[in-house]
Amino acid sequence: MLEQLDTFQSEASAALEGVQNEDALRAWYTAHLGKKSPVLTFLGDLGKLPKEERPAAGKRGNEVKRALEAAYAAKEEALRRAALERSLKAEAYDVTLPGRPVQAGRLHVTTVEMRRITAIFAEMGFQVFRSREVESDLYNFQLLNFPPDHPAREMQDTFYTTNPEVLLRTHTSPGQVRAMEALRPNPIRVILPGMCYRFEQITARSEIMFLQVEGLAVGHHITLTDLKGTMIDFARRMYGEERKVRFRGSYFPFTEPSVEVDMDCILCHGAGCRMCKNTGWLEISGAGMVHPTVLRNGGYDPAKWSGFAFGMGPQRATILKYGIDDIRHFWANDLRFLEQF
Prior knowledge:
Layout lengths: L1 H16 L4 H12 L4 H7 L9 H37 L18 H15 L3 E2 L5 E3 H4 L25 E3 L5 H10 L4 E10 L11 E11 L4 H16 L5 E8 L2 E10 L16 E10 L1 H6 L8 E7 L1 H9 L12 H4 L3
Parallel strand pairs: 1-4
Antiparallel strand pairs: 2-3, 4-5, 5-9, 6-7, 7-8, 8-9
Helix pairs in contact: 1-4, 2-4, 3-4, 5-10
């Protein structure tokens, strides 16, 4: 019986010596270590042997099996090395050739425009103030004059956590109150860039997440004239000195009065086209004078202090600047789009 195992091992070893390629090695494995191989069949039939012979037979059978597995692994490695040597000889590399240049990356076009916007407002004396993206209902809505059940909340459906009082912010405006709390009782001139989230349909003009830049100025004797001058100066620095700007009355719960800021279409120069819906004007920002309630919630007495605020989207600014027809391009990671800028 044990002599039979020695025969299995010697026959398998002799056959392995003649193996010269991977296909033959796989065939050898099936024949000598597969489920129907002599060694595994022997080990499977141990129960048929007399009880006193089983320990010695099982020990020897496992020794033969492990020896054949080790021989298989060694042969596999030898074939791999031989194949590598043949490949190196057949496809020799000229080590004196120059290396392949590594393509340099670049900033995303939105990042470039965000930095441009930040630089323009920095020249006007605004500093960057960072605010959180995960907000409370109190700061995202209530302190900005959106009391519970206020109809204006319908315009800003968002993503809530398991705690109904904690949500992803729908706009950067909560940063207004946080900036006032952090910087009071001093005058304020800040911008608050960051990501916002809204639960709405994804289309060529809207996404569930987008960048915004909020602006806030608080001081003594600040008027709507200061806001208008700031927005006109920004539009001309951002889009060109020849730009025309207009202001339309609007409504935001946290500003009073509120305005929409429009610029003559950068593509048709006011003549009317698809981009501006044939109106000749493109919206670049929502803005207004900070509502007295919001000033009070931030710790400023509206009888002594006043201020203005505005909000704009860097992606919208990029769309206007380059004539991009679909906001979804910004998140698609398509190099054909990104390498244009």
